[in-house]
Amino acid sequence: MTPDDAPAPTCASCRTLLWDTEIAAGRYACYRCEDRGAEQLHAIRGAFKRLNTIDGLTKPQNGVCGPTGTREAPIPPRLAVLAQTGPGGVVAQLQAGIEDSWRNALGWNPGPTRSLSDIDGATTFLINNLPWACERYEEIADDLEAITRIHNTLTSLETGERGPRKFTAYCATTHCTGQLRITLWTSHATCPTCTTSYDKTALAGLVTEYDAAAA
Ligand SMILES: [Zn+2]
Ligand SMILES: [Zn+2]
What we know:
The protein is mainly alpha-helical. It contains nine helices and four strands.
């Protein structure tokens, strides 16, 4: 049905070719990207709740006075965590950055402004409407990217790492010894040696350092 010279439709987010059923449904993003988005939103909810606790914030001890009567500097709160759980943090980013646009596209009234800690409300709205957005919302790729970014930020705050854990995957091209440094969330990568490019599905099929260690 598609003319031969027309480019095959690809997922707006990960750029892999869409399946026939996805094309028939007129989707912008593939089912795998939808699943990953939902998985990341659930993970964001959990990480936010764990970080938004007294332990997560290392609450300053107010009112402690030193021997000279001067107030001791409080234990510094983890400002990076506060930036995500406070004003302008994750809940605001999910609502103002994504939810409001979806409501607008759906012709719905804007929702009430969520409280800073209403991570359940913010993620539930997006999880419930993600199937619609992946199918019908043209800007979905940007939003999936934003969700991945928020997810990675919270994950790195929790683990103390600078990003999601990277690992080595070995290029599958014959005679190429190239290594790709990827994470579980990498949607495409290029072999630095032979420049073969891999989409998410192809990356999942590569032998990794974990396979090598297990062998
Ligand atoms: Zn995709
Ligand atoms: Zn290669």
